[in-house]
Amino acid sequence: MSVNEQALSYPIPNDAALDPPAEWAELRTRCPVTHVTLPSGDRATLLTRYEDVKQVLADPRFTRQLTAPDAARLSADGSGVFSSEMATIIPDSGEEHQHWRRLVGRWFTAKRMNALRPAMIRIADDLIDDMVKRGAPSDLRASLGFPLPVYVICDMLGVPAADRDRFSYWSDTLLSLTRYGKAEIEVAQGEFFQYMSDLVATKRAEPGDDLMSEMITAGGPEDGGLSDIQILVTGMALLVAGHETTANMIGKMVSMLLADRTRWERLLADPALIRTAVEESLRLDANSGFGLPRYLNAETEVSGTVLPRGTTVVCSMAAANRDETAFENAGEMDLTRSPNPHLAFGSGAHSCLGQALARTELQVVLEALLRRLPTLELAVPVEELERVEGLAVGGLREVPVRW
């Protein structure tokens, strides 16, 4: 078959900002477990079918041990968020991992997100005010998509929002596959680490009503809490995860809804569809980035293919979310789709801790834009939207809009 005569380059090159690469459908049908070549030149195994991806994400034999000597390097110099030492500090599995999730997860419940919703609405309205003052056209990513999740996660962690620009750069370097060199990444990680170390010391001296302070006041490992290094790395991980993916998703969601104007009109006519529209945007996101890499510490079988111990597997949740066997008319955007068991937030014990936060932010942004800027439209043809390249997360360089 054509897609597997030689190992595909991964991520699969694709110019279309919102559409999937053609190879996904072919792989799902004919070669759901396929060899790919990563930016490092190392080989990995790519999964594109819904059932396979779901199985692997729930299977404890597929681990995050991407620093193992025989694990594939994702980037040429072996740096970046998946393979850094930091990735090994947060417990990977078992009771320790569950304990960490319980401690941190208390801050990310749907109930707590509902309590934060009014503050999020105020932030969204203030950012839209600023955008309107500056006038159209505007870059929705820079004006709203990026600052809103940064404000929110900085607020939750007790980080001064004035430092947010530094976080965006530090995050980008941590998420780099090919964009930054090893030396630059190491300097940025050092600065980020030092910043968070100082923040932990400040919070220890003067605790506030925030997640970092709560992790510190919970005590150390002997009291059932986390060590200082775990607190520090958790803070870094939440800052990176808590803004980068949602910031990009806001731009992609709005672009998808404006790409076909009838979708926007439908939401204006029936705002009750906002919740299902957000879920469908998450499912249909064809530009979500690298996917989830996993390292196999025991031989296992996926879709009839035996994978030896030491295999690095890449789960493409975005490809799985377009699997016709899991979703009727999987390639179509159905704003009423329910249930919608997409895998945008993963599945199983490692599903995204911040999914209630991301969902709430996406709903708040969409509601605010429909309410405040009903005439919103893309200021360029969809074909001119450009993907962010070289990072582990997918996004659009900018989202030019007018109203």
Automatic annotation (TrEMBL):
Superkingdom as given in the UniProt entry: Bacteria
InterPro entries, sorted: Cyt_P450, Cyt_P450_B, Cyt_P450_CS, Cyt_P450_sf
Keywords tagged on the record: Heme, Iron, Metal-binding, Monooxygenase, Oxidoreductase
One Pfam family hit: p450
One GO MF term: monooxygenase activity
Cofactor requirements of the protein: heme
Residues in coiled coil: none
Homology family: Belongs to the cytochrome P450 family.
Protein name: Cytochrome P450
Organism listed in the record: Microbispora rosea
